[in-house]
Amino acid sequence: MNQYIIKGGKKLYGEVNISGAKNAALAILPAVILADSPCRIENIPDISDVKTIMTILSELGAEVEYIDTHTLKIDPRTVNTDIVPYESASKIRASYYFIGALLGRCCKAVVPFPGGCNFGVRPIDQHLKGFSALGCDTHLDERMIAVSSDGALKGANIYLDVVSVGATMNIMLAAVKAKGLTVIENAAREPHIVDLANFLNMMGADVSGAGTDTIKIRGVASLHGVTYSIIPDQIEAGTYMAAVAATGGNVLIKNITPKHLESISVKLIEMGVTIEEGDDCVRVIREDSLVKCNVKTMPHPGFPTDMQPQITVLLTIAQGTSMVNESVWEDNRFKYVDELKRMGANITVNGKIATIEGVETLKGATVSSTDLRAGAAMVIAGLVSQGTTYVEEIQYIERGYENIAEKLIGLGAEIDCVPKPRSLIEKIS
Ligand code: UD1
Higher-confidence residue: 118 or 138? Predict the structure, then answer.
């Protein structure tokens, strides 16, 4: 098990390239099995969650060929089962997209309950409600979810009771080859939903309204393979913006879509950071002290919950008292706060609201990544702290950030990735 050792206090300067969007790739790669010929997918992030999806595709029988680190050719014609094996699929949340993709391909799917980061209860009732509206029966046991329909799925009107990214995309996958019209109301509007719709439409699907809260899907008989490039990762970009805002400095963040970053940029500007937008880049400059602001996480186009831990780190060193309201996930999304407190942060959590009194500086400590984005927040906290920070459980960070240590070192940070020494108990057991 590796850890990051970060010597804090260095300002960040230079340029950083943002990788393809994790949450788009995790839906688009399963969607390839809807096609009746090979797909070439470009700008795939080199992260462990994507590797797990590739393993599942191979286990289903697809032929997967790496053209280079970020480009894959996938031939779905050899897929020969509708059962997703337990071991790989139970590691990640996004394995649930194989339910929609297999239903779209062959009207039947047996998929393990999804794993992923623990933000508390992560139900999939809205996914199942959608499949059942499309004419499917569902059977659950403690490990597996079996969904199937006798004959073709039938288009339906589906109103989501909560705005769910996963349910919106999963229903799109299942409905794309269903008979007739499916309408998803109260749909999520994240950039990766638009990306999935664009991919499906290039393959021959008829999806309209993605990016609004009403998505219409007119079923088609077949889909064909295409070459497609995944959009840039909004959250990875936001994380580097937060890192520069924390340490101070001047960094050009490249290969991004500035429109996707507006809710993050607005908050950084409110805190005293300068943001200059280009066509496919933003420059982040921070010279003066940060000042307080209040943040409430919301579905897109609101402030993303996946940027909540990173912005909280900034607020720990901002002048004044700030509030962060987590309205998407449960209180579990504040688990990392205990780690920040050990670095000297002054934070009180009451249910879904964290109150943060800005302090002069954080101090290096040994901290754990409690989940993917919390891990990124620990790295930012290490960059800005006095002394040395040891970030443990970095396998969470590697699930969603491509080469984060190398990218930060390229900006002037001092980070080593080294094996964590074994504890005395581990040595004698
Ligand atoms: C995705 C992202 C995750 C991000 C989240 C919200 C992936 C792999 N993960 O997760 O990083 O934090 O969007 O932007 O893309 N809900 C229900 N019933 C359901 C589904 C969801 O009640 O059937 C609730 C959840 O408990 C949560 C809220 O809806 O409170 C949003 O969840 P959802 O948008 O579905 O998150 P994911 O798609 O799992």
Answer: 138
- The number of the ligand 1 atom at minimal distance from the alpha carbon of 169 is 38
Please give the mean pLDDT across all residues of the chain.
95
Question: Distance from the CA of 416 to the center of ligand 1, in angstroms?
Answer: 33
**3-class SS of residue 157:** strand
Output the six-digit token pair for 181: 């019209």
Q: Give the total residue count for the chain.
A: 429
Q: What average pLDDT does this structure show over 339-352?
A: 96
- Closest approach atom of ligand 1 to CA 125: 23
User: pTM of the prediction?
Assistant: 0.95
**Which residues surround ligand 1 with Cβ inside 6 Å?**
23, 26, 93-94, 122-127, 162, 164-167, 188, 305-306, 328-329
The C-alpha atoms of residue 296 and residue 371 are separated, in whole angstroms, by 20
Examine the residue annotation and report whether 39 is marked as an active-site residue of this protein: no
Report which protein residue has its CA nearest ligand 1's atom 26. Answer: 122
The domains located in the chain, with CATH, are 2-19+232-428 (3.65.10.10), 22-229 (3.65.10.10)
CA distances to 180, 237, 243, 336, 409 from 390, rounded to whole Å, are 55, 23, 17, 14, 16
| Residues 184-237: tens digit of each pLDDT | 999 999 999 999 999 999 999 999 999 999 999 999 999 999 999 999 999 999
